[in-house]
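Dear support,

I submitted the protein below through the web form. The confirmation email said the job was done, but the results page showed an empty box. After a refresh the structure appeared. I'm attaching both so you can tell me whether what I see now is the final result or a partial one.
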Amino acid sequence: MNQDIESYQEMFARVKDNGEGAFIPFVVVGDPDFETSLEIVKTYVDNGADALELGFPFSDPIADGPTVQAADIRSLNSGMTTRRGFEFIKRIREFTNIPLGLLVYYNLIYKMGADEFYKAAKESGLNGILAADLPPEEAEILLDTADKYGLDQIFMAAQTTSNERLEKIAEMCSGFLYVVAVMGVTGARSELADTTVELVSRVKSHSDLPLAVGFGISRQEHVRNVLSAGSDGAIVASALLNIIGENLENKEVMLTKIGSFCRELKEATRK
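What the results page shows now:
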């Protein structure tokens, strides 16, 4: 199935042709366990996901708030490892060809070795990798390895990113540029600040890459706001992980609520 995998470029062009933005839900691989996590991913796909953002669990996720930390703990407690994570991605590729991105902490790449990690990533069917805690200035080895295996190396732009640094990041990045919507760690927010809209506009003026905004996107109005500001997609994480965490005792209810919420968020991408 891998030869038919949709690229980020193809996906963003597809949704644009449909007059939409991209809806990109996030899941911690293996949360709350391998098979349930796979059902969650399938529910995302069946209810409007244009691409998926997958996280490998990590014991010290410095960029993440309590919701993602709790998901990481559930996944690690269920026995998830990096190698099992790649097996999980292969299972996803049995039912979808949409782009799959991996959000990972550099320690996991370093421990396995960049070449082995990226080779496994390619063989599992990933499109791209974002090392959340690795500054672009230190990422040369990953850029070379990503290029070797034909993977997109994705980077983040934040409100604290200067215009000069933004241009450098845009030159190094491929696939899409991940725009961090808020100051601080991940987590659902009730409101998105005006500074988020300003950041999207600023990034847009320094890069031709598609933009996807994440961190704090938790409502239909947030999705509409970032798309109207010029973003090409919205990444939704903690709001979905909260549904998982609140419904661990009833998987059927969990999946129903996730499906309904995904449809609402996808609807908000339609202009």
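Response: this is the final, complete result; the empty box was a page-load delay. The domain at 2-153+233-267 is CATH 3.20.20.70 (TIM Barrel).
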